Each structure stands twice: as structure tokens, then as C-alpha cells.
Amino acid sequence: MTHKAGFVNIIGNPNVGKSTLMNALVGEKLSIITSKAQTTRHRILGIVNNEDYQVIFSDTPGIIKPAYELQESMMDFVKSAFDDADVLIYMVEVGEKELKNEAFFKKIIHSEIPVILLLNKIDKSTQEEVEEKVNYWKEKVPNAFVHVISALEKFNIEIVLEKIIEFLPEGPAFYPKDQLTDKPERFFVNEAIREKILRHYKKEIPYSVEVETESFEEEEEIIKIRSVIMVERDTQKGIIIGHKGTAIKRVGTEARKDLQKFFDKKVFLELYVKVNKNWRSNDRQLKRFGYKD
Question: Residue range 130-143: average pLDDT?
Fold first, then answer.
């Protein structure tokens, strides 16, 4: 019996539902999801294992025109997704006409590897509109297998997985068969906290924040975690904490509940806020947080 294995990299504009798709395909919430652009900052792998195959899904940041160093690094993650892909998933939604980066779009239509173009969020459109868009994208990206899905409702996800497996090259598994992702536990702690900040704070605050977990101590009955929320300015620190600490308490409570589900264990979470001036434009800080080599 032959075994298939390969990297399936998911790209698209912000808010198209890439993270929702990967979570649906993997069956676990690995990528955080909010309605804000730039929710995904890193390239996150989610691994689906079967006796006959191993699919390594890669969720990348939404494609944008970079405005500062952090965003440049985020787009480097997208570039790397083209380099090692065995199958490329290009996600669009009804109403979209093109990628925000023309060079990336040219790479897709001239790709020598299989391309799957997924038209997402069809539950929010009429049948006529969906059919019109399917024809539009078949003409626009003639080398792609075009399919309609609703990642949120998990509609047509099984068909997508079947097509991916069909396209995968033969080969041995890249990762142990019991491995779910390439990221360490602390990464998911940081992301759970950052997701709540994206949900509850407005304007520039969520984009100025980075989270670092300083300690992760797992005991038999409980996991004790201490994490620091980094902001760029003193005024932002006050906003994150909120009046009498109410804002940061809400973030901590909601993140702890998610982490307890993720780790399937009781969690004690301590949160602190520190000012780390202009970290988004500082090479040394970006390396520290894993955005640069």
C-alpha cells in the first residue's frame, strides 16, 4: 500500500477564513480566529494523520501591503509557503476580485504544483451569485480546481480533503504520526491571550501587542502559567489593564477557559503588562518573538 505525504499551504487575503478552514480540516482549534485583519501573524502547521497519508496544513498571515517591519516579516511567512508547498490552497470569498499582492497572484496562476481555489462563505450568498463567481475564478485561475465551501459550517470540507489526498505526492511521513502541530505549548498560550485582546480592544491596541509566556509549569492536576502582554507605549498599558484591572481580568478569564479546553486540564493563568517600545520595528525584538531568523 502506498503512503502519501506533503505540505498543503493555505493563502489568501485577510479575513477570508483561512484559519477557520485549517481548524476544520485538522479538527482542532490551532489558529486563533477573530473578525480583525492580521489575526494570524505566524505560519502555523496543523497535521492530519491517517494510516495511508499525512497532510501538513500551513496557515499563513493574510496577504497585505506591509507598512512596518512586523508586517514585512509576516509576508515573508507567506513567501515561504510558496517554496515548500506540494499543494496550494488559494481561498477567496464572494465579492473578491484579486489578491492584494499581484506578484503572489502571478505565482499562483503559473504554479507547477496543484492549486485548489476555494470560494468560501457561500452561505452568505445566493445560488446565482455563487455560480457566477465560480465561472469567474475558473477563467481567472484556469490551472486551479475550483470548489465552493463554508469553512465555518464545515460544508464540503470532506470533499476538499479527498481532493488534497488525490494531489499529494507519494512519500513517508514528515512528522511522527501522533503529532498535531509544529508549535510548542507556550505558542498556543500566547495566541489564546492575543485572540482575546483582538476581540475586546479597538483601534491600534491589538496590533501593538505581543504576548510572551515566561513560565509554563505542568503539574498532575493543574498547569500554572505566567504570561506577559507587551505593548509599545505607556498609554496602551493603561488601556490593556482597564479601570481597576477589569479589562485584563476579562482577557485572563476567557483565555484560561480556552486553554483548559485545549490542554484538557485545569489552568492557573497570571497576566502582566509591560512596555516594550517600538518592538514591531525592532529587528532584535522581532527575532525574539519568532518573526525573523
Answer: 91
Contacts of 3 (CB under 8 A, 6+ apart): 52, 53, 54, 170, 171, 172, 173
Reading across the β-sheet that carries 222-231, which strands appear in turn?
Answer: 210-218, 222-231, 266-275
Count Cβ atoms within 10 A of the Cβ of residue 130 and give its class: 0-12 exposed, 13-18 middle, 19 or more buried: middle
Tell me the DSSP string of 169-198. PB---SS-TT--BSS-HHHHHHHHHHHHHH
Q: What is the pTM of this model?
A: 0.80
Task: Extract the C-alpha cell encoding 71.
Answer: 508586517
User: Which of helix, strand or coil describes residue 24?
Assistant: helix
**Structural domains of the chain ordered from first start:** 4-167 (3.40.50.300), 185-288 (3.30.300.20)
Contacts of 244 (CB under 8 A, 6+ apart): none
Cα within 13 Å of Cα(113), Cβ side: 21
